[in-house]
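Hi,

Apologies if this is the wrong queue. I'm a grad student, and the batch job for DUF4784 domain-containing protein from Bacteroides uniformis dnLKV2 produced an output file that my downstream script rejects. I'm not sure whether the problem is my script or the file. Here is the sequence I used:
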Amino acid sequence: MTNITISDAGKTFNPGDAVTVKADGLQSDDQIILDIYWPIADNPLFPEGYSRYTRAVTTEQTTNSITFLAPGHWPASRVEMFLERAGQLQPLGQISVADGQSPEEPYLYGITNSHAIYTPTVPRGITRIDLVTQEISEVIQFHDGEDFCLAANIPGTNILCGIREKICHRYILPKYHYRMD
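Support response: The file is valid. Your script probably expects a header line. Output copied below for reference.
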């Protein structure tokens, strides 16, 4: 492989951001492998944590590029990237990734989409339930004629997406940074 470049190599990526590696000589069975390292400030004997040989979540691959998601669920980290081909690893470079740890306090999200249970006290929409205080807060309310379907979490991002339908027209619901833990 030659002419290796990494998109936005100098920036700090958020977990789930697209990272593109461009190079001449890529093959269809090439994989991106990540070694993830983060500092551990309060442990002088082990100043760095790590997760090695983590397969990247590839979202697109062409004859001259591979796009994958920046890893999540780790503290802010330095990520070394490798190309795996036929069991051999070739270094590609490194990127920085922002903190992607799950929140210490988990939340539960509910989607109320049924007209059958609609009452003024239970509006249709997405709500967040704090599991510690039991407090319920509205994230988004669906209006008459709107429905929501195909809820999905993008791997490694804690982002919930879905399709919002309004009078037979479908729209991608904007990405919300929901913590789905």
